Amino acid sequence: MGQRVAVASSDGEQIDLHFGQAYQFYIYDLDDSGYSLVEVRKAAGLLTHNADEIARKTAVLQDCDALFAAKIGLGAIKQLAGQKIRIFETPFAMKAVLSKVVEKNILGGKG
């Protein structure tokens, strides 16, 4: 499998932050055996929907294959899609979501 994902969470338990408001992302590596926390990355919240500001925020996730957030706006969706980052709106418990992603191989394997 071998994927890296970012999770917008205020507490490391719930996927509870809107992408634009997220001040941190939990970065996980996923493989066939499960998932492991790599780091927590800090990020500035978006003050506007300016494309340059969104680009600065999405740059924090440049090595990620997917993003899990409670919500995300259209401008950020377009920016992340351009970076080939898959987007999931999943306002649920982080462990449950990551476990399901691994179990069902939702992201698919890297070729």
Q: By helix and strand content, what is the structural category?
A: alpha/beta
In total, how many beta strands?
Answer: 5
Q: Whole-Å distance between the termini? A: 9 Å
Shape by Cα distribution:
globular
- Provide the helix percentage: 10-25%
Order of helices and strands: EEEHEHEH
As a percent range, the share of strand residues is 25-35%
Rounded mean pLDDT is 92
Which value, in Å, is the CA radius of gyration? 13 Å
Unreliable spans: none
Main pleated-sheet profile:
5 strands, mixed
The main sheet orders its strands as 3-2-1-4-5
Number of helices: 3
Structural account:
By secondary structure, the protein is of the alpha/beta class. Helices cover 24% and strands 28% of the residues. The chain has three helices and five strands. A five-stranded mixed beta sheet has the order 3-2-1-4-5. The longest helix has 10 residues, at 94-103. It is globular and about 40 Å long. 31% of the residues are buried. The model has no long low-confidence stretch (mean pLDDT 92).
